[in-house]
Amino acid sequence: MSKDNSHADVMTDWEELMQAVQSDPEVQPTVDTDRQSLAQSLTTVQGLKARQNELQGLRQEVTQQLAAELTKGKETAIKIRSMTRGKIGPKSERLVHFKIAPLRKRPRKAKQVVKKPAEEAPGAHPGPSTSSTGGSAA
Question: What does pTM read for this prediction?
């Protein structure tokens, strides 16, 4: 017999077990109290599963409401920052207090100094006559 893991499989298994006990008069008196306990557990599980499904629907609804409210709040924050920038001025350093980057002058680039190649010591580079890769053979 396979092991049932899903709630639906477990509840179906319990229902079938209770029907089997109900249909067998020889076993029924022996396990009647346990059958009643199983029936009560089945009813409780069915109620809890229904509640779980209801809460899942509510969770999805609340998630949608939360996303809508976050969007609304972000738009309001953008409006407030925009009005603050207009009131204070786009270059004011006070904008940093509102987490707004003020317009600043760009720093000048430093002049690049052209470096002359350093004089090399004699014999550091082999001459063209000693090169073995570029010469032609006769």
Answer: 0.52
Measured CA to CA, the distance from residue 94 to residue 79 in angstroms comes to: 17
- pLDDT single digits (tens) 80-127: 999 999 999 999 999 999 999 999 988 888 888 777 776 666 665 665
Sign of CA dihedral 8, 11, 12, 13: positive
Residues 6+ apart with CB under 8 A from 35: 18, 21, 22, 28
* Residue among 35, 37, 34 at smallest CA distance from 16: 35
The residue written with tokens 């006769």 in the block is 138
SS3 letters across the chain: CCCCCCHHHHHHHHHHHHHHHHHCCCCHHHHHHHHHHHHHHHHHHHHHHHHHHHHHHHHHHHHHHHHHHHHHHHHHHHHHHHHHHHHHCCCCHHHHHHCCCCCCCCCCCCCCCCCCCCCCCCCCCCCHHHCCCCCCCC
